[in-house]
């Protein structure tokens, strides 16, 4: 529980990357906790220098006045399998665990699977980000539900700023999977 009057600190992999980037530049961060629309609007207007928060290239590209960074991490949401169905390619009619915090149920249904929100004994399939499969002792099947290219957002036309961020993100790209696994609940 935070102290009265203190704003919550940003957490997660992107917040950690932002802190490391600011440290490398020798600048302080003024965090603003906003919704996605407000953050991208702030970038577009020039009120915000850098927006983070799980943005994908698809989120940022259509926003006039905002530019996506280099995709520092490509995340695939896949069907993972354990047990005798270790490489099941067809999930038609099979129960598939979908964590309640991930909006993948409709995609599982589209593939013919039956989404369930509880991981239980006897359940051999799960819809998860690819970087989480090993932790659950699962093997990726050939079924990819969705891909997401994660980016930071900056104001369009700020090419020098964008190049600075992209250089930093390229240097850190190899650490993202390990960072995600370390911070995952």
Summarize the structure in words:
- The strands form three sheets. A three-stranded antiparallel β-sheet has the order 5-2-6, with no helix packed on it. Strands 1-7 form a two-stranded antiparallel sheet.
- Helix content is 30%, strand content 21%.
- The model is unreliable at 1-6 (pLDDT under 50).
- Helix 4 (105-110) links the parallel strand 3 (95-97) and strand 4.
- It starts with 12 loop residues before the first helix and ends with a helix.
- It has 185 residues and is α+β, with helices and mostly antiparallel strands.
- The radius of gyration is 19 Å and the shape is elongated.
Structural class given helices, strands, pairing? Answer: alpha+beta
Mean pLDDT: 88
- Residue stretches low in confidence (pLDDT < 50, at least 5 long) are 1-6
Spell the H/E element sequence: HHHEEEHEEEEHH
Number of extended strands: 7
Helix content estimate: 25-40%
Main β-sheet description? 3 strands, antiparallel
Oligomer: single chain
Number of contiguous helices: 6
Distance between the termini: 19 Å
Give the strand order, joined by hyphens, for the main sheet: 5-2-6
Strand residue percentage: 15-25%
Q: Characterize the overall form.
A: elongated
Rg, Å, rounded? 19 Å
